[in-house]
Task: structure prediction
Amino acid sequence: MAFFDYDWSLIWDNREALINGLWTALSVAIVALVISVVGGLGLAVLRTAPKPFSWIALVYTNIFRGVPALVSVIWVYFGVALLLGIRFTVFQAGVIALSLLYSAFFAEIFRSALAAVPFGHTEAGWALGMRSPQIFLSVNLPQAVKIALPNIGSMFIGMVKDTSTFTVIGLLEVVRVTQNLVATTFQPFVLYTAAAIIYVIAAFAIDLIFRLIEGAYVRPPLGIVGRLLRARQRQLIHRIIDRTKAGSLTTESVRLPN
Amino acid sequence: MRMNQIMEEAQGSSGGGQAPIVQLRGINKSFDKNQVLFDIDLDVQRGQHVVIFGPSGSGKSTVLRSINLLAKPDSGSLKVGGIEYGPGLPSEVGVTRGAGLALRRKVGMVFQQFNLFPHLCALDNVALPLRKVHHLSKQQAREKAAIALRRVGLIDRAAHYPAELSGGQQQRVAIARALALDPEVMLFDEPTSALDPELVGEVLKTIREVAETGMTMVVVTHELGFAKEVGDLNVFMEDGRIVESGPRGFYENCTSDRAKEFLKAVM
Ligand SMILES: Nc1ncnc2c1ncn2[C@@H]1O[C@H](COP(=O)(O)OP(=O)(O)OP(=O)(O)O)[C@@H](O)[C@H]1O
Ligand SMILES: [Mg+2]
Result:
């Protein structure tokens, strides 16, 4: 069969269905991303807790990093229904399955990112009289997030790809849509090529978005987004600088409450 | 009377007059099985400038860090600005709560490695603890921070991030950050050791200016020229013990062999 025997126009004709599939995949992945980031951060913090608690986090991380998404979603969708009688929608099952796995990955990412923040910063916070939770939130976490961002971006691309296994529970994501189209058109090569192209484009877009966010997190901020986000604060700061230089701010104008 | 008081302060004696603002009594400290401080006694009078010097590993930093409880003493007692800490006292349970935290908030510290927060500009580095510790609004905290930066001559760099500042400038921001909280005592742990030689001068100048305001200070330094200049009380440490201490002129007049040897080796 020659190249032109394939009906490439099928891609264009079915663009809407394919894009809807991508949209479903992205929705599941984005909701799961939010949950996994929070869950992973929680696990990472738990890792620094005293022994029995840190073990819980360690065991969880090591188990769930090893479970394939396909197995996870079958557990959540069929297993939970069988054992507990809870029936999730396919969307919910997909989100839960991904969140269970990726919380474990994000836990590792955040653990190493937090460990990369010099301990001296924490000590400086203590020496300044700040409380440990304040130091964590305003000193350690912002730095760790910046360190973790590139890895979170890569993980998110993986999450989107892992939604392809959710075809097994009937989630109408890209692969499921493709399978349905193949069943009526008998053009698997063309349609799976289309699916591949969609995943690759999505990966490029995600990468780009995460790079922009990263740029905004670099200090001094890089790129248009970063500078735009900081513009208002910069303006406020420069106003204070000008007033201070003009001598209109004095030691008396701001007093510490006692 | 006035002269006597000055003399007394210079000798770090605790008898008579005002109570010392920092008082260490019989401080012992071990890391695992390794004891690094042995029965440290030290009195710092209000307005006094104390210099601690001695060989590497002698416990200088640990003494400094026990004053603000970054290193909690195993035994002995510690009093800062009237707040006491010691085994058995309520603050021992959680140092960041109650009396321990209150004690720590009377003390400012400047580190060898500056320890500025790299994700915040100079102004916000100074403003952050003002917001968190004293609950100032963002605007108020920044205004107070700006005054502190002007004091160390860095108001023009207020919007710069640590990565955009020289080491000397970073250390001066760190000094401003500690001063902005109006501490009663300032601790300096080798504040110029991480700096290129040409940047040492500006930081020493800033510290000198802080000293001239009458701030109580404890300085660990290898800059003996500077030590001679500011040290009202000079403390020589070795192997976790205070070997000898004395007032101005100590670097010429010390009597112990160990101190003399050390000074001969480093001068
Ligand atoms: N957190 C720690 N854990 C274990 N040992 C420590 C710790 N901090 C200090 N020590 C040990 O305590 C001893 C005294 O250390 P310290 O830092 O107080 O010395 P120092 O006089 O400040 O030395 P330097 O001039 O090198 O800064 C050293 O033997 C050091 O190895
Ligand atoms: Mg030291």
The pocket of adenosine-5'-triphosphate (ligand 1) is lined by residues B 31, 36, 56-62 (CB under 6 Å). The interface with chain B takes residues 118, 120-121, 123-132, 134, 138-139, 142-143, 146, 217, 219-220, 234, 236-238, 240-241, 243-245, 249-251, 253-254, 256-257 of chain A (CB under 8 Å).
